[in-house]
Amino acid sequence: MAEPERYPVSDEWKKRARVDAGGYETLYGRSIADPGSFWLEQARRLDWIKRPEIAGDWSFDEADFHIEWFADGKLNVAANCIDRHLATRGDTTAIIWEPDDPKDSVRTYTYRELHREVCRFANVLKGQGVQKGDRVTIYMPMIPEAAFALLACARIGAIHSVVFGGFSPDALAGRIVDCDSAYVITADAGRRAGKMVPLKTNVDKAADQAPVLKKVIVVQATGADVTMKDGRDVWYHEAAQGVGEDCPAEAMDAEDPLFILYTSGSTGKPKGVLHTSGGYLLWTSLTHELAFDYREGDVYWCAADIGWITGHSYIVYGPLANGATVVMYEGVPNWPDSSRIWQVVDKHQVNILYTAPTALRALMADGDEPVKKTSRASLRVLGTVGEPINPEAWRWYYNVVGDGRCPIIDTWWQTETGGHMIAPLPGAHDLKPGSATRPMPGVDPQILDADGNVLTGAAQGNLVIAKSWPGQMRTVWNDHERFFQTYFSTYPGKYFTSDGARRDADGDYWITGRVDDVINVSGHRMGTAEVESALVLHESVAEAAVVGRPHEVKGQGIYAYVTLNSGVEASDDLRRTLVQWVRDEIGPIATPEAIQFAPSLPKTRSGKIMRRILRKIAEGDTSSLGDTSTLADPDVVDHLIENGVA
Ligand code: WTA
Questions:
Q1: Which residues, other chains included, contact 207 with Cβ-Cβ below 8 Å and sequence gap of 6+?
Q2: 469: number of Cβ within 10 Å
Q3: Quick one: 170 and 59 in the same domain?
Q4: Which residue's CA is the closest to the ligand 1 atom numbered 12?
Q5: What's the gap in Å between 420 CA and the centre of ligand 1?
Q6: What pLDDT is recorded for position 2?
Q7: Are residues 408 and 495 located together in one domain of the fold?
Q8: What CATH number is associated with residue 355?
Q9: Which residue in 434, 494, 547, 630 is a FRET match for 301, CA 20 to 30 A apart?
Q10: From the alpha carbon of 384, which atom of ligand 1 is closest?
Q11: Is there a single domain that holds both residue 476 and residue 612?
Q12: How far apart are CA 284 and CA 314, in angstroms?
């Protein structure tokens, strides 16, 4: 293999780095050799009500399966993100909120103001009956109140479950019911790219399918006209009148749940990933500081949505635990025009920017001019997350956006891992476009072959993590057995990531993408089974099989094979209907790029759909279909090839 392109750590970065190459080796070495003392020392970065004396206590083996971190410690996550900064940073800006429309006003909150807002929100929740351990669903636009809501739950020990505002009423209802959430926090509507998202109306529709729902707290964000149901719906601004501006922070065990976040897997409905308090906060705070070389006073912008894990860990918990000034953006990257991100960077003098490859590819398509007409001189570090970054987008980010000055921090991680797992540190690691480079302290990655043998040196295979780390998820809500089966049964004693990876001769990791039936659409996970279930709910559909295929901007697009019920006529109209149907069932992120009507699907004699073949046909690569001898009816394939959708 040719020597990969390499961008060595600059002299300036060698000098200024918090952690240089030698520093990383020491840090990482200690974390693996003596995790107990390493993590107890790291735990000092948090404010504990009772300081822990034990670090990790875990086993990935079936007989003794358990994962605990700092189990004898007590703390409150919101107090760590707010209260402990008040003495030294009370007047520092915590949140700069940039609205969707650049003509609207920016809102800012100091840490002291954040304290007041979160306490007030917490008191409103209490007033509505929310107690420690209750589940609270948050279905919000990207407004400061979304962050207040998360932190208010954390303050009183309620477990939040954020549902991305782009999900449909059906998807929302499923998540409310799964975790028995009697409370929903929403807004009248959200704004995105100049359009209104009818959040409250969606909640009304979801409520019909979620009898468990008792109270809906509605933030007035846009003034949109909504119906309020007596006894169920409460305006936040009305409930907040007269509540106290202080609310004591509940003392929580380190292992008490902090939140549930639903994510797609290869089978079944989305799983409620559960994160707990102490280990998660430590992990997000440490990785935020290391990966971005975060310094006191930096203006930091993570352009994700709070509905995804990136928003939880790197808009709210990690940066606020570190006392950072966080930019929160309501809108999308390319509205009103494709210069918007760079204008926001200049407007707020952003030092650290964290975004996704799909956004970069979309902006790249509009050329360099929208970037070049802005200064961007404040930028120091550029991060990326969500999917493998193609070298072309990496170089554009580095050369055009960063003017060749800013290291690109390609962070590989998952909803399940809580925070960054493999990522370069700006002052420590030479960069290679497309490589996430090295593991974070405490992360022990291994590459295995299909039989579970550990491969050493340069190798390619399935990526597992051999040891627990503090930010690891603790269970699937209500289904501990599924947690074990999904992540620890494939390779006994190890956490299986479902990603493939390659390690090069230097020891750097390159993530190659999912090895299961999860499609990565614009950095968002979509289970093929979920889209298939949505399709077969339609009265015309007998069977569906969904695969991913490469997409220039989205990374992967959804390609659906649909077998219609007998007597139903295939037509372009029906195709459009089915696309809309899936959007209504799940949400716009599940929009199929292509639907191919297929009289029958390629199956093995035991009835298993051969997705490998369907993927090849969707990609238009029919020269190497591999072994088709196990197919029940080989003619099916010819028909599919002839009718493939370009
Ligand atoms: C993919 C997002 C390559 C990967 C934080 C993983 C990546 C899935 C990267 C998790 C990256 C995320 N390079 N692939 N830097 N970051 N992925 O749970 O396939 O939404 O398993 O978490 O995204 O997606 P999730």
A1: 173, 213, 216, 232
A2: 28
A3: no
A4: 386
A5: 10
A6: 63
A7: yes
A8: 3.40.50.12780
A9: 434
A10: 15
A11: no
A12: 7
User: For tokens 């001769």, what's the residue?
Assistant: 505
Paired residues of 447 in beta bridges = 455, 463
Binding-site members are 192-195, 310, 334, 386-388, 410-415, 499, 514, 522, 525, 536, 538, 541, 583
311 lines ligand 1 (CB under 6 A): no
263 pocket-lining for ligand 1 (C-beta < 6 Å): yes
Within-domain flag for 435:
yes
Could you write out the three-class secondary structure of 436-501?
Answer: CECECCCCCEEEECCCCCEECCCEEEEEEECCCCCCCCCEECCCHHHHHHHHHCCCCCCEEEEEEE
pLDDT higher than threshold 70 for residue 1: no
Is ipTM strictly over 0.90?
Answer: yes
- The count of residues in the chain is 646
SS3 content of the chain, % helix, strand, coil (to 5): 35, 25, 40
Task: Based on the fold, state whether residues 366 and 302 are members of the same structural domain.
Answer: yes
Provide the 3-class DSSP secondary structure of residue 521: strand
Same domain, 537 and 627: yes
Residue 4 predicted with pLDDT over 80: no
CATH of the domain at 545: 3.30.300.30
Whether ligand 1 lies within 6 angstroms of the CB of 525 is answered as yes
Q: 254-292 pLDDT, tens per residue?
A: 999 999 999 998 888 899 999 999 999 999 999 999 999
Query: What backbone torsions phi and psi does residue 278 show, to the nearest 5 degrees?
Result: -65, -55
Give distance in angstroms: CA of 386 to centre of ligand 1: 4
Average pLDDT over residues 576-603: 96
- The answer on 225 and 189 residing in a single domain is yes
Burial class (CB in 10 A: 0-12, 13-18, 19+), 553: middle
Annotated binding site for CoA: 192-195, 310, 334, 522, 583
What are the pLDDT digits (tens) for 31-74? 999 999 999 999 999 999 999 999 999 999 999 999 999 999 99
131 shares a domain with 233: yes
CA distance 281 to 284: 5
Strands (E), 150-251: 159-162, 183-187, 190-192, 195-197, 215-219, 233-235
User: Last residue of a domain, which of 462, 482, 514?
Assistant: 514
180 is a domain residue = yes
**Ligand 1 and 471: CB distance under 6 A:** no
Average pLDDT over residues 391-409: 97
Residue 569 has what pLDDT?
95
How many separate domains does the chain show?
3
Closest CA to 459 of 468, 470, 450: 450
Contact by Cβ (8 Å): 578, 597:
no
Asked if residue 319 belongs to a domain, the reply is: yes
User: Does residue 326 sit in the same domain as residue 243?
Assistant: no
How far, in Å, is the centroid of ligand 1 from the Cα of 575? 31
Tell me if 269 is assigned to some domain. no
* Host domain of residue 240: 109-253
- CB of 339 within 6 A of ligand 1: the answer is no
* pLDDT above 70 (res 3): no
Establish whether residue 413 lines the binding site of ligand 1, counting it when its CB lies within 6 angstroms of any ligand atom. yes
CATH (domain of 228): 3.40.50.980
pLDDT in tens, 166-190: 999 999 999 999 999 999 999 999 9
Position of tokens 């790291």?
42
Angle at 208 between CA 202 and CA 211, to 5 degrees: 120
